[in-house]
Write a structure and sequence with these properties.
alpha/beta, about 20% strand, 11 strands, six-stranded mixed β-sheet, about 280 residues, globular
Length: about 280
Amino acid sequence: MSESSRLAFPTRTPVYFLSIGGPNFMEDTEHPAYAKLAAVGQEITTKVIPKAVVVFSAHWQEGPNKIKINAAEHTDLIYDFYGFPPHYYEYDYPNKGSPQVAEKVIEKLAVAGIEVERVNRGLDHGVWAGFMVAFDPKNNPLNVPIVQVSLYDNEDTNQHYRMGQTLADLRDEGILIIGAGMAVHNLHDFRATRATGETKSYAFSFDEALKEAVISKPADRQSQMSALMRRSDARKAHPTLEHILPIHIAAGAAGSDLGEQLWTFPEKSLSWAQYRFGRVAAE
Protein backbone atom coordinates (compact mmCIF):
# COMPACT_ATOMS: atom_id res chain seq x y z
CA MET A 1 0.00 0.00 0.00
CA SER A 2 1.38 3.41 -0.95
CA GLU A 3 1.88 6.27 1.51
CA SER A 4 -0.93 8.22 -0.17
CA SER A 5 -3.26 5.22 0.15
CA ARG A 6 -2.47 4.91 3.83
CA LEU A 7 -3.20 8.57 4.38
CA ALA A 8 -6.57 8.17 2.63
CA PHE A 9 -7.69 5.70 5.27
CA PRO A 10 -9.74 7.02 8.20
CA THR A 11 -7.71 7.15 11.39
CA ARG A 12 -10.32 5.14 13.32
CA THR A 13 -12.21 2.03 12.46
CA PRO A 14 -15.94 2.60 11.92
CA VAL A 15 -18.59 0.96 14.10
CA TYR A 16 -21.35 -1.31 12.80
CA PHE A 17 -24.76 -2.50 13.87
CA LEU A 18 -25.79 -5.65 12.01
CA SER A 19 -29.28 -7.13 11.93
CA ILE A 20 -28.52 -10.82 11.56
CA GLY A 21 -31.62 -12.99 12.02
CA GLY A 22 -31.82 -16.52 13.42
CA PRO A 23 -29.93 -19.73 12.57
CA ASN A 24 -32.14 -20.49 9.56
CA PHE A 25 -30.92 -17.25 7.96
CA MET A 26 -27.58 -18.98 7.25
CA GLU A 27 -29.33 -21.13 4.64
CA ASP A 28 -31.81 -18.58 3.34
CA THR A 29 -29.54 -17.41 0.54
CA GLU A 30 -32.40 -15.89 -1.47
CA HIS A 31 -33.49 -13.61 1.36
CA PRO A 32 -32.87 -9.95 0.43
CA ALA A 33 -30.85 -9.41 3.61
CA TYR A 34 -28.44 -12.25 2.85
CA ALA A 35 -26.57 -10.50 0.05
CA LYS A 36 -26.64 -7.19 1.92
CA LEU A 37 -25.06 -8.66 5.04
CA ALA A 38 -22.47 -10.44 2.90
CA ALA A 39 -21.67 -7.11 1.22
CA VAL A 40 -21.11 -5.43 4.60
CA GLY A 41 -18.77 -8.27 5.50
CA GLN A 42 -16.83 -7.69 2.28
CA GLU A 43 -16.57 -4.01 3.14
CA ILE A 44 -15.12 -4.89 6.52
CA THR A 45 -12.54 -7.39 5.24
CA THR A 46 -11.42 -5.38 2.21
CA LYS A 47 -11.72 -1.73 3.32
CA VAL A 48 -11.80 -1.60 7.11
CA ILE A 49 -9.30 -4.45 7.55
CA PRO A 50 -9.50 -4.57 11.36
CA LYS A 51 -6.89 -6.09 13.64
CA ALA A 52 -9.58 -7.57 15.89
CA VAL A 53 -13.34 -7.48 16.45
CA VAL A 54 -15.16 -6.75 19.71
CA VAL A 55 -18.78 -7.82 19.40
CA PHE A 56 -21.96 -7.47 21.47
CA SER A 57 -24.81 -9.89 20.81
CA ALA A 58 -28.48 -9.86 21.75
CA HIS A 59 -28.01 -13.35 23.18
CA TRP A 60 -25.62 -12.67 26.06
CA GLN A 61 -26.89 -10.66 29.02
CA GLU A 62 -25.34 -10.79 32.46
CA GLY A 63 -25.88 -8.82 35.69
CA PRO A 64 -27.77 -5.52 35.89
CA ASN A 65 -24.53 -3.71 36.72
CA LYS A 66 -21.90 -6.24 35.68
CA ILE A 67 -20.37 -7.25 32.36
CA LYS A 68 -18.71 -10.50 31.37
CA ILE A 69 -16.16 -10.97 28.61
CA ASN A 70 -14.69 -14.00 26.92
CA ALA A 71 -11.00 -13.85 27.80
CA ALA A 72 -10.05 -17.23 26.31
CA GLU A 73 -8.40 -17.80 22.95
CA HIS A 74 -10.04 -21.13 22.15
CA THR A 75 -13.68 -21.95 22.93
CA ASP A 76 -16.52 -24.01 21.52
CA LEU A 77 -19.49 -22.49 19.72
CA ILE A 78 -22.72 -22.21 21.68
CA TYR A 79 -25.79 -23.70 19.98
CA ASP A 80 -28.29 -21.66 21.97
CA PHE A 81 -31.36 -22.44 19.86
CA TYR A 82 -33.89 -25.23 19.93
CA GLY A 83 -36.10 -27.22 17.58
CA PHE A 84 -33.96 -26.94 14.46
CA PRO A 85 -32.95 -29.85 12.19
CA PRO A 86 -29.96 -31.81 13.51
CA HIS A 87 -27.47 -30.44 10.99
CA TYR A 88 -27.79 -26.94 12.45
CA TYR A 89 -26.01 -28.24 15.54
CA GLU A 90 -23.10 -29.43 13.41
CA TYR A 91 -22.23 -26.04 11.93
CA ASP A 92 -18.75 -24.81 12.66
CA TYR A 93 -17.55 -21.23 12.49
CA PRO A 94 -13.76 -21.08 12.75
CA ASN A 95 -12.75 -18.38 15.22
CA LYS A 96 -10.35 -17.53 17.99
CA GLY A 97 -10.44 -15.07 20.84
CA SER A 98 -7.69 -12.84 22.15
CA PRO A 99 -6.80 -12.53 25.83
CA GLN A 100 -4.77 -9.43 24.91
CA VAL A 101 -7.72 -7.65 23.27
CA ALA A 102 -9.98 -8.75 26.12
CA GLU A 103 -7.60 -7.05 28.56
CA LYS A 104 -7.77 -3.84 26.53
CA VAL A 105 -11.58 -3.92 26.82
CA ILE A 106 -11.42 -4.67 30.54
CA GLU A 107 -9.00 -1.80 31.10
CA LYS A 108 -11.32 0.69 29.38
CA LEU A 109 -14.37 -0.53 31.28
CA ALA A 110 -12.54 -0.54 34.61
CA VAL A 111 -11.51 3.10 34.19
CA ALA A 112 -15.22 3.91 33.84
CA GLY A 113 -16.00 1.98 37.02
CA ILE A 114 -17.70 -0.91 35.22
CA GLU A 115 -17.34 -4.30 36.90
CA VAL A 116 -16.10 -6.96 34.49
CA GLU A 117 -15.63 -10.70 34.93
CA ARG A 118 -13.36 -12.77 32.70
CA VAL A 119 -14.97 -16.01 31.52
CA ASN A 120 -14.34 -18.83 29.07
CA ARG A 121 -17.36 -18.66 26.77
CA GLY A 122 -17.76 -19.45 23.09
CA LEU A 123 -19.60 -17.35 20.54
CA ASP A 124 -23.39 -17.65 20.72
CA HIS A 125 -25.54 -17.87 17.61
CA GLY A 126 -26.26 -14.15 17.90
CA VAL A 127 -22.71 -13.74 16.61
CA TRP A 128 -21.63 -16.80 14.67
CA ALA A 129 -24.83 -17.41 12.67
CA GLY A 130 -24.68 -13.88 11.24
CA PHE A 131 -20.91 -13.99 10.84
CA MET A 132 -21.30 -17.15 8.74
CA VAL A 133 -23.05 -14.92 6.21
CA ALA A 134 -21.03 -11.71 6.62
CA PHE A 135 -17.69 -13.49 6.90
CA ASP A 136 -18.13 -16.74 5.02
CA PRO A 137 -15.21 -18.93 6.18
CA LYS A 138 -14.51 -20.09 2.62
CA ASN A 139 -15.20 -16.98 0.55
CA ASN A 140 -14.66 -14.04 2.91
CA PRO A 141 -12.89 -15.16 6.09
CA LEU A 142 -12.46 -12.58 8.81
CA ASN A 143 -9.14 -14.04 10.02
CA VAL A 144 -8.79 -11.81 13.08
CA PRO A 145 -9.57 -12.45 16.76
CA ILE A 146 -13.17 -12.05 17.90
CA VAL A 147 -13.84 -11.04 21.50
CA GLN A 148 -17.46 -11.19 22.63
CA VAL A 149 -18.65 -8.99 25.49
CA SER A 150 -22.00 -9.34 27.26
CA LEU A 151 -24.78 -6.83 27.54
CA TYR A 152 -26.08 -5.77 30.91
CA ASP A 153 -29.14 -7.73 32.02
CA ASN A 154 -31.34 -4.65 32.10
CA GLU A 155 -33.19 -2.32 29.73
CA ASP A 156 -31.22 0.84 30.49
CA THR A 157 -30.35 2.12 27.02
CA ASN A 158 -28.27 4.99 28.40
CA GLN A 159 -26.14 2.61 30.46
CA HIS A 160 -25.40 0.63 27.31
CA TYR A 161 -24.69 3.83 25.37
CA ARG A 162 -22.19 4.91 28.02
CA MET A 163 -20.48 1.52 27.86
CA GLY A 164 -19.98 2.10 24.15
CA GLN A 165 -18.52 5.51 24.88
CA THR A 166 -15.91 4.00 27.20
CA LEU A 167 -14.71 1.69 24.40
CA ALA A 168 -14.51 4.26 21.61
CA ASP A 169 -10.73 4.67 21.84
CA LEU A 170 -10.22 1.01 20.92
CA ARG A 171 -11.03 2.12 17.40
CA ASP A 172 -7.74 4.03 17.28
CA GLU A 173 -5.95 0.68 17.69
CA GLY A 174 -7.60 -0.93 14.67
CA ILE A 175 -10.20 -2.76 16.74
CA LEU A 176 -13.64 -2.97 15.14
CA ILE A 177 -16.73 -2.73 17.36
CA ILE A 178 -19.88 -4.51 16.14
CA GLY A 179 -23.32 -4.64 17.70
CA ALA A 180 -25.37 -7.63 16.53
CA GLY A 181 -29.15 -7.73 16.94
CA MET A 182 -32.23 -6.70 14.94
CA ALA A 183 -33.58 -3.22 14.21
CA VAL A 184 -37.11 -4.53 14.86
CA HIS A 185 -37.72 -7.87 16.58
CA ASN A 186 -41.09 -9.25 17.68
CA LEU A 187 -41.05 -13.05 17.49
CA HIS A 188 -44.58 -13.45 18.79
CA ASP A 189 -46.00 -11.44 15.92
CA PHE A 190 -43.57 -13.04 13.47
CA ARG A 191 -45.13 -16.43 14.08
CA ALA A 192 -48.60 -14.90 13.74
CA THR A 193 -47.77 -13.25 10.40
CA ARG A 194 -46.24 -16.29 8.72
CA ALA A 195 -49.56 -17.29 7.19
CA THR A 196 -50.59 -13.81 6.05
CA GLY A 197 -47.25 -12.33 5.10
CA GLU A 198 -48.40 -9.01 6.55
CA THR A 199 -45.72 -6.55 7.56
CA LYS A 200 -46.76 -4.77 10.73
CA SER A 201 -47.02 -0.98 10.66
CA TYR A 202 -44.62 -0.68 13.60
CA ALA A 203 -41.92 -2.44 11.56
CA PHE A 204 -41.98 0.58 9.25
CA SER A 205 -42.56 3.33 11.81
CA PHE A 206 -39.98 2.22 14.37
CA ASP A 207 -37.47 1.42 11.65
CA GLU A 208 -37.77 4.97 10.34
CA ALA A 209 -37.55 6.46 13.83
CA LEU A 210 -34.41 4.44 14.53
CA LYS A 211 -32.86 5.74 11.33
CA GLU A 212 -33.62 9.35 12.26
CA ALA A 213 -32.07 8.86 15.70
CA VAL A 214 -28.94 7.21 14.32
CA ILE A 215 -28.31 9.87 11.66
CA SER A 216 -28.95 12.78 14.04
CA LYS A 217 -26.09 15.08 15.01
CA PRO A 218 -23.64 13.21 17.28
CA ALA A 219 -24.20 15.78 20.05
CA ASP A 220 -27.92 14.96 20.00
CA ARG A 221 -27.72 11.25 19.28
CA GLN A 222 -27.85 9.84 22.81
CA SER A 223 -30.97 11.80 23.71
CA GLN A 224 -32.58 10.92 20.37
CA MET A 225 -31.89 7.23 20.83
CA SER A 226 -33.04 7.29 24.43
CA ALA A 227 -36.32 8.81 23.29
CA LEU A 228 -36.89 5.90 20.90
CA MET A 229 -37.97 3.59 23.69
CA ARG A 230 -40.61 6.05 24.87
CA ARG A 231 -42.42 5.88 21.54
CA SER A 232 -45.87 4.28 21.41
CA ASP A 233 -44.64 1.66 18.93
CA ALA A 234 -41.44 0.80 20.83
CA ARG A 235 -42.81 -2.16 22.80
CA LYS A 236 -44.40 -3.56 19.68
CA ALA A 237 -41.13 -3.33 17.78
CA HIS A 238 -39.19 -4.67 20.78
CA PRO A 239 -41.29 -6.41 23.46
CA THR A 240 -37.93 -6.97 25.18
CA LEU A 241 -34.89 -4.85 24.42
CA GLU A 242 -32.00 -7.27 24.02
CA HIS A 243 -32.05 -7.04 20.20
CA ILE A 244 -31.92 -3.22 20.14
CA LEU A 245 -29.43 -2.67 22.98
CA PRO A 246 -26.39 -3.49 20.80
CA ILE A 247 -27.06 -0.46 18.58
CA HIS A 248 -26.99 1.76 21.65
CA ILE A 249 -23.51 0.43 22.43
CA ALA A 250 -22.46 0.96 18.82
CA ALA A 251 -23.82 4.51 18.80
CA GLY A 252 -21.98 5.30 22.02
CA ALA A 253 -18.73 3.94 20.59
CA ALA A 254 -19.21 6.11 17.50
CA GLY A 255 -18.27 9.27 19.40
CA SER A 256 -18.39 12.26 17.06
CA ASP A 257 -18.77 10.13 13.92
CA LEU A 258 -21.98 10.33 11.94
CA GLY A 259 -24.30 7.36 11.63
CA GLU A 260 -25.61 6.04 8.32
CA GLN A 261 -28.25 3.48 7.43
CA LEU A 262 -26.65 1.24 4.83
CA TRP A 263 -29.82 -0.68 4.00
CA THR A 264 -33.13 -1.69 5.51
CA PHE A 265 -35.92 -4.17 4.91
CA PRO A 266 -38.96 -4.26 7.21
CA GLU A 267 -40.44 -7.75 7.00
CA LYS A 268 -43.47 -9.00 8.94
CA SER A 269 -42.53 -8.04 12.53
CA LEU A 270 -38.80 -7.60 11.90
CA SER A 271 -36.43 -5.11 10.34
CA TRP A 272 -33.09 -6.07 8.84
CA ALA A 273 -31.52 -2.60 8.89
CA GLN A 274 -27.74 -2.37 8.76
CA TYR A 275 -25.88 0.68 10.10
CA ARG A 276 -22.39 2.09 10.03
CA PHE A 277 -20.97 4.91 12.12
CA GLY A 278 -17.90 6.57 10.65
CA ARG A 279 -16.12 6.33 7.32
CA VAL A 280 -14.40 3.61 5.36
CA ALA A 281 -11.63 3.94 2.81
CA ALA A 282 -12.62 5.47 -0.52
CA GLU A 283 -13.25 3.24 -3.49
